[in-house]
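Section 5.1 Outputs to date
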Amino acid sequence: MRFDRPGEALLAAYSEGVLAAIGGITIDPIVPDALRMRRFYVRPAFRRTGIGSEIAQALLERARSVPLVTLNAAVKSVPFWESLGFVPQARDGHTHIWHGAERKQRSPRSSSCKSACLPDSLHWKYRAPIQDDRG
């Protein structure tokens, strides 16, 4: 998984050079015209600080033009994802979806919040899609 196609991204938050959290979004391999949230992990020392929410919201902000975002949520993470507006739908290899109707009612915070909303000791790193001019 390279996170290098249009619409894909991988975000990481670091604290004093240590990876605190990571999360990404890719094109869903099964559901047409959808993105899928992937590779979310927050180190135990940084849990309940809001960093996971910030990463998820930044990625959802990038996905506003896509009609559907899917997710395969681990059992213990279900309350977290549902607090962000994902709703249960177990099919096609995912457990939850986030779509236009919820997006209008529960839109994530603006992406301009990224670094300003993080604790002072955290900062972002972003892997942008690779642009290929080979045609």
